[in-house]
Specification:
alpha+beta, elongated, five-stranded antiparallel β-sheet, about 45% helix
Amino acid sequence: MKEDGFSPLLHANIERMKLMLGYSSDFIVRELILPGNKKTAIFYLDGMVDKKELQDSVISALLDRTPEEPVTLQELKDHVLDAGEVCVTRTLEAALEQLFSGSLFIMMDGVVDGLSIALPGWNDRAITESKTQSVVRGPQDSFTETLRTNTTLVRRRIKDTRIRIVSLKVGKMTKTDVAVMYMDTLADEKQVRRLIGRLQACKQDRVLEGEYLEEFLHEKKQLTIFPTMYNTDRPDTIAAGIMEGKIAIFVDGTPFVMLTPALFVDFIQSAEDYYQRPLYSNLIRLLRYVALAICLLAPSVYIALTTFHQDMLPTQLLLSLATQREGVPLPAFIEAMLMEGTFEILREAGIRMPRTIGQAVSIVGTIVIGQAAVEASIVSAAMVIIVSITAISSFVIPAYAMSIPIRIIRFAFMVLSASFGVYGLTIGIIVLVVHLCHLRSAGIPYLSPSAPFHASQQSDAIFRMPYWKSTKGQTKQGRSS
């Protein structure tokens, strides 16, 4: 017997598998005597297989045999078992992997091989509306925690023979199922091979969500807080990305799918941009960029102007601000940090609290704390307005992954403005732009196609052109490279 192979003695294989699983109570062994006095055992994990299918498609089929009929593994595989996916398994490691994936395992006495039958029976979450990127018009379905369901949702939208899916298992302990989906002839072959190679080389013990792989696949030479992979739970967004030549990474157990390469403009665009008229979509996109600037710069500009550059403000506005700040003991910078920090606490509290009270607490808490702070002369009313519009603007950014680094950089800009005024803020903006220009996602410049700029490749960059004006066969990745 090989070290990882099976023994011809059935009872030895049963004992060995029980020992490997620590005599776990959910490991079930169903022993049968088939026609011809053939001892057989069925192994499965309770709760991982469909018991009705087990009874109807396996046990009944095995026992409904006449004594004259031959009983061999090949006979069972070819003529007896009517399950959809049946394969021969020759090693203990492969058999255990099949058990953990929702399969059952059949062995016979005197045979060193076994049959794995895929009969997954766990409960899946139903396909529901996206909770992170909702739209008014467009598909309302979203991914679930089941990998095969997610790949099917994309295949429903792309009925093309060029779709390729490469399946892998990542994680020494979790052995998580990972699928790489791309479209042949559109995706860059070098990027696909490089991505699959890095996944195969992943030595992590556990992979419970896409972030485990995202950090591993991240360009190690790039130190940045900006996301270089796009995450979404919308099947239409992933399908559109694949048809643009991008590569999708599905991880079993999470409803979020990663898309690479991911450019800066991808995080500002929304799926609904493509389901509305171009004029409306472009106005909304312009509004998002304005909201992005407000979210990033509003508190910093207010601190710089009120602290160092009062002469840049109109007289009436300056007098109004001076009147509001009369009696406020804190400088503008401390005011802003206090209010921004309070709002971040309220934001996190609203997310972590039960949904029935979370939204009410966050809204009421914001109003009550803001009004009380103004009445107590701790902060000025203008600062409350600035912080409020900044917070609201952060929710306009469609991708939550992009709003996080913007919020972090906002605090850094506030420190620069309090220290050096507009001069420090300008230096900060220049450093930020240079950093973004330096970033790459899967080898493609992060600010593509704006930097480097290509006039002929702007049909869906900052603004979306009408479909009838778009260049035939043009893709974002093609424009960006």
